Amino acid sequence: MIALRRIGIVLAIGSLLGASGCAPRHSTSSAATTAGTRAVTLEVGGMVCADCVAKVHDQLARVPGVRSVAVSLEDQRARIVCDPAVADTSLTRAVRRAGPDYIGLVVAR
């Protein structure tokens, strides 16, 4: 219960910070999929500023087989285009390596 309340508070703060000039998006390229790739959306949560976005982005971009990453502070999500062989667990572990407050839950494939 406390974790869910914390996520709600963080989402509200993240939205406010995004509206006040904290860069809401960080991406390496378009998230459009091509033949031989798949798209994954992760609920990240816990991001409150551009530095948080950069940490999550950098960790996801380091996963072998990841072709593009787009992280949104406002949405609290990361959209990844990767090779089909990349396991969801590799992506969620990368989010958790970025910081202990980040969730890294797969919400769409």
Helix-strand layout with pairing:
Elements: H1 2-19, E1 25-27, E2 38-43, H2 50-61, E3 66-72, E4 77-82, H3 88-98, E5 105-108
Antiparallel strand pairs: 1-3, 2-4, 2-5, 3-4
Keywords for this structure?
109 residues; globular; five-stranded antiparallel beta sheet; Alpha-Beta Plaits; alpha+beta
In summary, what is this structure?
With 109 residues, this protein is α+β, with helices and mostly antiparallel strands.
Describe this structure as you would to a colleague.
The protein has one domain (2-108): 2-Layer Sandwich (Alpha-Beta Plaits), CATH 3.30.70.100. The chain is 38% helix and 24% strand. It has three helices and five strands. The protein has helices at residues 2-19, 50-61, 88-98; strands at residues 25-27, 38-43, 66-72, 77-82, 105-108. Strands 1-3-4-2-5 form a five-stranded antiparallel sheet. A hairpin with a 4-residue loop joins strand 3 and strand 4. It is globular, with a radius of gyration of 13 Å. The relative contact order is 0.24.
